[in-house]
């Protein structure tokens, strides 16, 4: 379970990284829309696992690899934003968050199920 400090830092990092992806580095990733869906931070606040979701892109793995290559630059932008709140800027590890795709797939499976109605029950007197 995360401590309150971890939760606060994770929320702040999520907000700052979202702004970095949408404003400062948007031109480097083309027309793709990048959403920071979740951030999990280690107890010592040194490693942040960042979960990303992508829209308007064909090859998500290629975009994720590009982001991983530019992680040093992203971390530098993040450091400029959090330098007064954190002693060290956490190392960033980026992961693809596919929960929305998984939920859509499950909805499609459930919609395709043919469930027959239950047989009528006889009333007891």
What does this molecule look like?
There is one protein chain. This protein has 125 residues and is α+β, with helices and mostly antiparallel strands. The protein has a single domain, classed as GMP Synthetase, Chain A, domain 3, CATH 3.30.300. The protein is 45% helix and 19% strand. It has 4 helices and 3 strands; from the N terminus they run H-E-E-H-H-E-H. Strands 1-2-3 form a 3-stranded mixed sheet. The longest helix is centred in the N-terminal third of the chain and has 21 residues. The radius of gyration is 21 Å and the shape is elongated. The mean pLDDT is 88. This is Ribosome-binding factor A. InterPro entries: KH_dom-like_a/b, RbfA, RbfA_dom_sf. Monomer. Binds 30S ribosomal subunits, but not 50S ribosomal subunits or 70S ribosomes. It holds the Pfam family RBFA.
